Fold this protein.
Amino acid sequence: MTLAGFAPRAALVAALLVSGLPGAARAQAAPAAMPTGTLPGGVSYELRPDATQSATAIALWYRAPAGGFGEPAIPGFSALAADTVAASAGLTGTSLGELVDGFGGVLSVAVYPDSVSVTAVVPPERASAVVRAMTGAYFAPVVTDDGFQVGLRETGQDALVRSFDPSDAIENALGASLFATGPLHDGTIPAAGAFKGIDAAQVRTFAERAFRPSNAILVLTGAVDAGVLSGVANRPEVSTAGSEPPAPQTAQPSPRPSAAPIVANATGVGLGWVGPPIADEESATALDFLADALFAPHTGLVTRAVADRKVSVSGKFVTYHSAGVFLVTLSGDDVPAAVPIVEQTIARAVKPLAPAAFAAAKAGFVYRLLGDMETPGEIADTYGWYAVEGDAAYAPAEGGTAGRYFALADALTPQSVARVAARYLGGAPATVTLIKAQTKASPT
Amino acid sequence: MIRPFAVLAAALVLVAPVTATAALPAPGGATVVDLGDARAYVEPDATVALTGLELFVRAGLDRQEDRQNGLAALVAQSVLRTPVDGVPLADAVEARGGSVTFAVAAQYARFYLEARPEQIGPLADLVARALHAPSFDPATLAAARRELGDRIADAQSDPRLVGLDMLRGSYYRDGAGAPALGTPQTLLALGTADAAAFYAHWYVRGDAFVTAVGRTGPADESGSRALVDALAPGNAPDGALAIRPLTAQPKRLVTHRDDVYSPYVVIGFEAPALGDRDFPAALVIRAILSDLFKQDQATVRPFVFRPIGSIYGYDADPAQLALWLNGSEVEPQVGLAALDALVKAAAEKPLEAAVLARYRQRARGEWALESLSLDERAWSIGNAVAHGLNADASAQVGAAIDEVTAADVERVAKKWFQRFDVALVLPRGDGG
């Protein structure tokens, strides 16, 4: 095994590797008891214990564009870096991926347009070791040749799976129709061969910038206590660099229907609207609610409107720092017939729902949201997402049903939702159509 | 790169130093509530916002007779389709901010209701109304068949589940070995009279119990009582699952499928059930077998890119452990031969201490991650109770894994893992 470019980084790596050992000299000074805070090295953290859980989730979230910091953007580059670091064994000889796997845990990397997350779900007695290893691995990223090859393979596999998923593929394509520049425009799914010519040094350069402690949000949920924070690695060399600023998103001047169908692995149609930024919490909550009211399984207005069609329809509002997006995807044999039904049903949302229907939709919305926050991993995702987008206090998991998010949800009225719908969904959507490549007709 | 079997068996080392176990409070134990003819087992968790109630009814697959394949599922699905206030029960529950689902297993059918604490009582009453007077009219049955058909189609597109169905059919006798949801053809043959008779015979409260998890309170007790009281009084005769003993020569089952794109080999072992003293050691053996052919990896892989995996059906007694080999990642004959060699080796000499420690650690971790969501936690308690065990039995397995010795592994490998059946799930034609 060789360490790609290890020598020039030897000092940095040596300073950090102590984090993988008990009693690390460079570990953060003292455990903090507050649920939210910043450690001396600049790492932000969210600590939400639940001792009744049988597992612990340890997540690192980073604000970093999926396409990398340079031009042109290479979709999925952040995932390649995160996978490579997880697969690279430093001086301890054990990669983070091997460590978590050996504990019987699960390690996953998730890539989003403007952020990337690494989450380990492990038995509680392994939480300390994983916190040390994960922060050590990412705060001073080692990139080995073997790790780089594993990263290439896994990022490619994940991209392939996502490219065949209609929702993922359509949402990825919608970004370019909605935004002229920025991470959503660039997307997260790399095309086949997109990493050709990329070398381990480029990955390491990205990882050292993106995964530095001051850009990290460490989320700890499930059966865990504050003591594990004392094992968080430090990186004094760059700890004052601060976090990455939110990437600007430039919306297309007008909604852009795709000029021609896009040839892809999945087929379907996507509709998209630009929504409010996360700072407009009231509007963002209203669109979350509306997406659920329209697309909930069985009872959603759109779901029921197309129930007799051979079509799968989904919709959601995604909250981002700069501008959120309301995304609708349709796939299946009856898409052409279903599109106008979906558009008409959404258009009617600019009128207030009847009180009884609104109350039922709200009860369902609150339930489904709470149902998405049951496991340590799900709760960590919620905190990570809202923290990385710049508004951790607005995370639905914060404070439970008495928290800020659910207070805003509770305050929604048919009229307020209709107003937000009129403002953000009243215009024509951006649209994309994905088709599969034509297969050559057989001469016989 | 593929780690060869020989290297794995000969030179296993700990991947990391074992650190001291953190002092954390153990998950809370379940309390038992007397509901009259039945019991509820309650495990509160005040940090979550929802409550889950799961009703277990002794109306699983083994209650089906010849030519009744799919009846247990059709009856359960029909309960969810039963009109309540003019709409199907599942929709009525969803419209009030909750969800209700069902599953059928070898011995039990179970209905899982989840909602906010203030809604759990009223929603349990809705479910109770459907249980008290389920609809099996032709329209309800037709809708239930359609919904089951979608689930069957999903399952049939997964080669692992196709192989598992084949092995279950070979291993369990009678109804317990039938496909859990039936087939579109067998469902069509079942009608109102079949469903009504099955329900009347097996949906009785004497064999039922409820588990309650999450943010529990007085409402879940009254809700549990409503669910149980909705069933007819009485007990039905219990019976052990009958199996066909595995033979020294593996039985080979083969199927060709249109929607399968690479060959899968699924190997079925008779395995100890939860509560069996061999169960913890079997979990260690599962961890060892599942590590065979594992590639260097950063993150958990989608199953289509994994060479091997396992499905442990410990909800039945006797249980079945199935291992699947992905033919696109490992050559099937090579995989099968390696697996056979490994189980034989495990039965012939004890594991080295370091190897045992490594796989105990992995098995314990995998067990801790088995039951995280509310419905999984409700099922975990119920599965223990269904086996006649203490409701906390599942929570005690982790500690038992730590006590597994090399001699235990050798003994359990010899007793349970030397005979197996093989299912081959192959692409039709030239595959994809």
Chain A is about 40% helix and 15% strand.
